[in-house]
Design brief:
The chain is an alpha/beta fold. The chain has two domains: 4-118 and 294-327, Quinone Oxidoreductase, Chain A, domain 1 (Alpha-Beta Complex); 130-268, 3-Layer(aba) Sandwich (Rossmann fold). 27% of the residues lie in helices and 26% in strands. It has helices at 44-51, 121-143, 161-172, 187-193, 225-234, 257-261, 276-289, 308-316; strands at residues 4-12, 15-23, 33-42, 62-63, 67-75, 85-89, 104-107, 113-114, 153-155, 177-181, 197-200, 218-221, 240-243, 265-268, 299-303, 323-327. The strands form three sheets. Strands 3, 5, 6, 7, 8, 15 and 16 form a seven-stranded mixed beta sheet that branches. Helix 1 (44-51) crosses helix 8, helix 2 (121-143) crosses helix 3 (161-172) and helix 2 packs across helix 7.
Amino acid sequence: MSSFKALRVYQSESGLEPRVESMTVDQLSDGAVVIRSAWSGINFKDALAVTGKGKIIRQFPLNAGIDVSGTVETSEDPRFRPGDPVVVTGCGMGENHDGGFAQMVRVPGDWVVPLQDPLDLRTAMAVGTAGFTAAMALVRMEANGQRPEQGPILVNGATGGVGSYAIRLFSHAGYRVTALTGKPEAADYLKSLGAEEVLDAGELEFGTRPMEKGLWGGAVDSLGDESLAWLTRTVKPWGNIAAVGLAQGIKLNTTVMPFIIRGVSLLGIDSVLCHRDIRLATWKRVAELLKPEDVDAIVTREVGLDGVVKAAEALMERRQQGRTLVNLA
Ligand SMILES: NC(=O)c1ccc[n+]([C@@H]2O[C@H](COP(=O)([O-])OP(=O)(O)OC[C@H]3O[C@@H](n4cnc5c(N)ncnc54)[C@H](OP(=O)(O)O)[C@@H]3O)[C@@H](O)[C@H]2O)c1
């Protein structure tokens, strides 16, 4: 059986040890579909995992990486044939199942999504969990009545993967977007993605009242904590807030007032274990809204397997803008 390379993470007494090493398919976590990987991408969660800054990996050793695109090598699942271009995001890959920072992955058929036109393998991973999550925010918010006439969508953590795609997708879907960032020097980048206005997070007054002046038609929140609490107080009547992330913190200190006086909705976004029908609908929306050239500005870096750890450190230290792709071919 031919060998391939993987970024495999070991646990030792001194912490986590990621190593690029050779493996064979029979050593991988089980599944009906074997995929020859083409691309992966580095998400916030991957950076937490390989730097050991977050408890993401729950069994050791394990190949890291929560996303992968590639072509089916073999399949015991009749829905897939050798050569099919496919994408897998989340589902526990890189957490408790060998993940996408590897030249081969083996997963259950239910995790595998056929690539939809006009996405190609590189574009799909340029999107990755970050873009998929932003698209799920759009799908869920619109299913709950969000419309462009309600006002601008506030996107925070704007230069990050989710934030960047939220700006692209919501602006393509006809919404005005206001980007909130801790990197005001990135204003030109954010405007090139479709943001009409860019706010400096450092200059924000959060206020303290249960409800402040309604400013936003809706919001996509990657931060949690004070930033999310502020959004609950400043979203206009019947707006939706997609709670996506915790880059600032996991607490949420707010009141019921925005929910019972303004009809504001707080929608949970779970890209990892969402139902397959939501997964397929979300990728469909991505394929409808994004063109391959749309991702060019968001992908700011490409690395090989041996560059993943350094790129993850940059992301943890907030030195990274946009997405880093991992070339596995
Ligand atoms: N629910 C889900 O299924 C799901 C899926 C994907 C990601 N997530 C979560 O969503 C969040 C964003 O993910 P991502 O992949 O976009 O990460 P990312 O690329 O690292 O972006 C996060 C952005 O948040 C801002 N930020 C980072 N640390 C911060 C801090 N301490 N305080 C305030 N702002 C901070 C930065 O943007 P600015 O400098 O522009 O402000 C950064 O670029 C993460 O918490 C991630 O775990 C959740």
